[in-house]
Design goal:
10-stranded mixed β-sheet, alpha+beta, 3 domains, 20 strands, Archaeosine Trna-guanine Transglycosylase, Chain: A, domain 4, 6-stranded mixed β-sheet, Alpha-Beta Plaits
């Protein structure tokens, strides 16, 4: 089976645990995830099955949508509710107008420092292991993209919370966003709850529960819809599957998705075939192929 499995990951489950559970239910079929989701977060986890694991990087590149409740007044070492409290401050006099204005400053490309308690590797070691062993890993700022940040529930001065919907790119830490908002307001903040709502055109509303008896699968056609793609004839399909370049002008249909993968083009025929690379002179060379099953 070459397919995609959408899972609604519960809180307190690691992404690797979800892979293990799915693999057990699928009787040893190759299963891989497309980027971790914090154990303290819930929501959409995209798993790749069989030869579909070859396309994990493409899923990771897709834009994501999160819903987060930010708790002001408390700073933790993990930047979320699971960590040790580092400081506590009053949030009663928080400047709401300044807070709302600050959200606009995050829009677009910016540098973000990941949390020390994260899976990012430093000299081959996950940062969270270094942090929990008493060391102070140096977390270098990295470019991240915030496409949009919407206020779902305005700041509540009684509880010190703010609910946001965040559209962002790969590698973005919502925990770091919460921490940065705490620094800006001067009263500290952390993530109280976090749910991933979507990855590209894959939605949480279509996800399976982890312990579902019989999973519903998503095809690789749906992944291709996110990217530039072509539909080719049976004649070109045979050439492509044999590793031969095909002429782009022979494509029967051309569609452009919402994401851009350099000069790579998703190729479809009677089924999803793989990904090709535009190499100039109107040729598309196969770089990832899905064997016929």
């Amino acid at each position: 089976m070459n397919a995609i499995l959408l899972i609604n990951k519960p809180i307190d489950y690691r992404s690797s645990q979800c892979v293990g559970i799915a693999r057990k239910q699928l009787k040893g079929l190759k299963v891989g995830h497309t980027g971790t989701l914090d154990s303290t977060a819930s929501g959409l986890l995209v798993l790749m099955l069989g030869h579909a694991t070859r396309f994990s990087e493409y899923v990771m590149s897709l834009p994501k949508v999160y819903r987060a409740v930010i708790q002001f007044g408390v700073e933790t070492d993990t930047y979320d509710y699971s960590g040790e409290i580092l400081s506590q401050h009053s949030y009663e006099n928080l400047d709401v107008e300044a807070l709302n204005d600050s959200l606009y400053s995050f829009s677009g490309l910016r540098l973000q420092s990941p949390p020390a308690v994260s899976a990012i590797k430093i000299d081959g070691q996950p940062a969270y292991k270094l942090a929990r062993s008493g060391k102070d890993p140096k977390m270098e700022a990295r470019p991240v993209l915030f496409r949009d940040i919407k206020i779902l529930k305005p700041y509540d001065s009684q509880t010190g919370t703010l609910e946001l919907e965040i559209y962002c790119g790969r590698g973005t830490y919502i925990r770091s966003l919460a921490h940065d908002l705490g620094v800006i307001t001067g009263c500290g903040a952390h993530v109280k709850s976090l749910t991933r709502m979507s990855v590209g055109n894959f939605s949480l509303s279509n996800a399976n529960s982890l312990d579902e008896g019989e999973y519903r699968y998503t095809t690789l056609h749906e992944l291709a819809e996110n990217f530039t793609r072509i539909y080719i004839s049976q004649r070109d399909e045979k050439s492509f599957m044999n590793g031969l370049s095909i002429l782009l002008r022979h494509a029967e249909e051309f569609s452009r998705g919402v994401s851009f993968a350099s000069n790579e083009i998703f190729v479809e025929g009677d089924r999803f075939l793989g990904v090709g690379e535009y190499v100039g002179y109107d040729y598309v060379r196969p770089i990832v192929i899905v064997p016929k099953v």
